[in-house]
Predict the 3D structure of the following.
Amino acid sequence: MTPAIEVHHLSYRYPDGREALRTISFTVAEGECVGLIGPNGAGKSTLLLHLNGVLPEKPTGAVRVFGQTDLAAMRRDVGLLFQDPDDQLFCPTVLEDVAFGPQQLGVPEKPATEALAQVGLAGFEKRSPHHLSHGEKRRVCLAGVLACQPRVLALDEPTSGLDPRGRREFKALLHKVRATKLIASHDLDLIAEFCSRVLLLDRGELVADGVAWEVLGDVTLMVSHGLERPHWLQHRHPH
Ligand code: ADP
Ligand code: MG
């Protein structure tokens, strides 16, 4: 079967010359939920941005989404939740922002009001996105992504800045979304709850690709790449 995501020898340099990704290769099967971890500056966001091609320079190597390489097709299939919600919101009202993606892509539209209700923001239609709290902005972004009904969800630090209730509600929602998922996060509880497999990036290189609890539980690996083994894994796997 054609993989949902295929990344082959992908390298990327920003216009200022900074090398952000170095010969990254991996595939994600349809229906998989894969975690993307690594210290700040590892290249996680840059990698996710390649899935819908919003970068200033051309990469070397290849990225395919369900076998497709043309940007328009990739953008139809991938719903990308940006790390910073302010990069994603630009319409005067919440409703317009949520409806923008499906209109732009020409994909079958899930009504924007329905997507808003799905993220717990019913009644927010006429609000200005810029006057919302950080957590509310994130939800509007997620509603915009879900309104496009993507086959692949690429989430960049989706729980950062959420309070405990917001995080719990986000996870409950995420459990209900049927899509192939690639989740970049420092929230290792989230990664462990959703992802059976984890990719570890450091300085633009893919340094591990394996079973989630094995990667997360490898204290030497985690510490040598600026991370920590989650404390609850230390209890479960004392060695
Ligand atoms: P992460 O999401 O893992 O924190 P990023 O993908 O944001 O990492 O960044 C990877 C590398 O690329 C870092 O060294 C970062 O400083 C650099 N970088 C990110 N965005 C830009 C940009 N717009 N211009 C130049 N360098 C950038
Ligand atoms: Mg990032």
